[in-house]
Amino acid sequence: MQRYFSNKKIDDKLILSDDDIYHITTVMRMKDNDEIIVVYDKIAYLCCIENVKEKLKIKIKKQLEKVDYKTPNITLIIPILKEQKMDLILQKATELGVSEIIPINTNRSIIRLKDGKDIKKYERWRRIVKEASEQSHRIDIPNIYDIKNIEELDKLNGLKIICSTREKTKNIKNIMKKNQKCDRINLVIGPEGGLTEEEEEHLNKMGFISTSLGSRIMRVETVPMFVLSIINYEFME
Amino acid sequence: MQRYFSNKKIDDKLILSDDDIYHITTVMRMKDNDEIIVVYDKIAYLCCIENVKEKLKIKIKKQLEKVDYKTPNITLIIPILKEQKMDLILQKATELGVSEIIPINTNRSIIRLKDGKDIKKYERWRRIVKEASEQSHRIDIPNIYDIKNIEELDKLNGLKIICSTREKTKNIKNIMKKNQKCDRINLVIGPEGGLTEEEEEHLNKMGFISTSLGSRIMRVETVPMFVLSIINYEFME
Q: Which of B20, B76, B112, B195 is most exposed, with the fewest beta carbons within 10 Å of its own?
């Protein structure tokens, strides 16, 4: 069943964006009484649609049960990569349950944003995580922060991990086994070519643990999927 | 350093394909005495190139140490998907250490190949896994089998897993924990919409265990990356 997110609820009616209304009426060609699922304020509702031909209304039929994913709150901290890789990471990270995404400037990033924001890029990213959230039946959409510098990552709480190409002894398994009860994980992924030694040391001083992902050599966009899969697995019951 | 695969060795010289020679001379514009790594018969050699301007020669300087990945032999069994998804799976599965890929016909596959082979598709797939093997510094290239029907999967040995959308109790973690010493894993991924009940039962009868991947809803191309990441993690030391 089609799923949408809503930001507004009036009595037993949920309000959708113009894009979603267009999708329902013109792309999906739905009819009165067709059912959809709409998520509002982290609750999923089974709804039926009314008045398609004039002013579409979304009427709540019942509240749906919440799925418990068991995973901690995950913040993914990534350099800005080329469009295709970035899109893939955002989509897959959303499917795999990331809560927040912090894009960062790093020395070896190919793409850097100075003003902290590039409106078009952010619009594109937000659309990708929204659509991936709908497709993977999430009840929330990952929050994408304004771009930060490494120095600004000092206020994060919880377990802090760097996916390091430099670290040879401590691996992700050692770290996960020691932190099986953590409720918040922050993951730093480096750019192609890795973080510089200076950047990694700076992060280490802020409490980030340099971690090896084993002996496989992965493309940068594979790394978040690898680590997020592992976290889902480790918290599976 | 650039890496290539060779199929032929004469004394201390390795022979490369015309495509690779073109890549070295024209794309990379290498010069005499430049170094490359060439893998021949699952051994990586540091080589230097000679005689670039006339008939390129690849001379072995020394044999490189073998990396031990600890993971079992993994056979990925997948329906044929649309080009972009298929390409992504082949690339990522190679990075994550798959040994063999068996494309299968399933009832809900959108794309089906009747004659067991589509030469152009196979050429494309072989190129993708070769390039991914070079990039991830593998010493072997995953073998892509001719397309099979489900009934033909009865001769596989080792642990046999179905990534099932139907199974609710046994999850991948239960299965992995019970099979920590297996040296061969066969993974069946279903098409969009999943395997039919009949197909799954047929596989169950051949010893395939239906397995849940937890409560997240993933796109079909995410599933192999998820499971392969988990296997790498489980066999990490």
A: B112
Residue-wise DSSP of A65-76: PPPP--PPEEEE
- The domain of B89 spans 73-234
Distance CA B24, CA B4 (A): 10
Mutation site, B68, B212, B216, interface A, largest A CB count within 10 A:
B216
* Residue A236, pLDDT score: 93
Give the number of other Cβ atoms within 10 Å of residue A120's Cβ.
8
What pTM did the predictor assign? 0.93
> Is there a single domain that holds both residue A88 and residue A205?
yes
- State the smallest CA–CA distance between residue A163 and chain B in angstroms: 14
Give the closest of B137, B225, B233 to A217, CB-based: B137
For A92, which residue in chain B has the nearest alpha carbon? B222
In CATH, what number is assigned to the domain containing residue A51? Answer: 2.40.240.20
A-B C-beta contacts closer than 8 Å: 96
ipTM tops the 0.90 cut:
yes
| Domain annotation covers residue B214 | yes
For chain B, count helices (H), then strands (E): 6, 13
**Within a domain: A161:** yes
- A53 to chain B, closest Cα gap in Å: 31
Structurally, how many domains does chain B consist of?
A: 2
